[in-house]
Amino acid sequence: MSYSSSRRNFMKGVGAGAGLYAMGGVPSLFAQSEQTVRVGYLHTLAVDGHIWLADHMGSWADQGLNMEYIQFTTGLELFQALVGGSLDVLATGAVISNFPARGQGEAFLINNVEEGTAQLWADPESGINEIADLKGKQISTTTGTTAHVFLHRALVEAGLDPDRDVELVNQRMSDAVTSFISGAVPAVALWVPFNVQVAQQRPSATMLVDASAYYPEAAIVGGWAARGDFYQQNPAVIDKIIRGWLPANEMLVNNPDEALGILQSNYYPNVSLDQLQAQYQAQRVFSRDQWLTRYENGTVNEWLDQVTDFFVEQGGITNPRRASDYFHPQHYINIVS
After folding, report:
1. Which member of 130, 194, 317, 327 lies 3.0 to 4.6 Å from 323 by CB, making a disulfide possible if both were Cys?
2. CA separation (Å) from 180 to 117, 122, 185, 205, 331?
């Protein structure tokens, strides 16, 4: 799915600009040439909430950015598109610790910590009432994603060997959830909002645990990355994205009720406000200054590295770059300090 918000953002900019001209000011939209940026995203609040708030507020247009949005199903598909050249930047979850560590993409902005967005569901009718009961059972998920990282931690904490004690069934998340609902597998590790579909269509199922049980030791961050050549050639655009993101972040942190109302009405019409609020509660967002501290003291690097280490342990990455090489906080630090 691909669509552009250029006209909507342009009109918002014109409206805001009229007031500035009346006061003798010049709106930034007319002070700089427009830059088209192809943005890949997943349609889940933890990933695209900032995108749509900035879209609604006109802060992308205020920076002279014409954001062309392209939706994907998983972070793996996002990075494949980025590496293939069909995206300039993307927003994603745990996969931000994967491909950049391989040398494919440069991370530059963090949205949140996905504290409880990943969940493990099972059906007691299958004889599964706690995580230990998963021994010898199949679990459907999408490997290499936030859900997989969380599942691995949950199994280890319960004393199970993820490689020997359970059988992972690797599917796209929509298919993994369908498999669980149909009864083809007795358990599924997913990310919100797929939990809504499970609760509605397999009401006997229960959530065994979510990722908040392992925070902050197993924090999973989501954020933005750019294609390597795009990042190198367009540092000013990277800065503009951060500046456009900041007002949306502050609204989400300081006025979540208003922000979620806007998002639900305009961008999540098929998700109830209660469900969207539950998604918000499943993540941790921080103010601009709180993020600044975490950028400067290395906390974000630690969060990224521990997920990269998971991918190394799984055999998906050899000789990885560390977060200090693929995450570039200086853009944000220079803007916010």
Report:
1. 327
2. 18, 8, 5, 9, 43
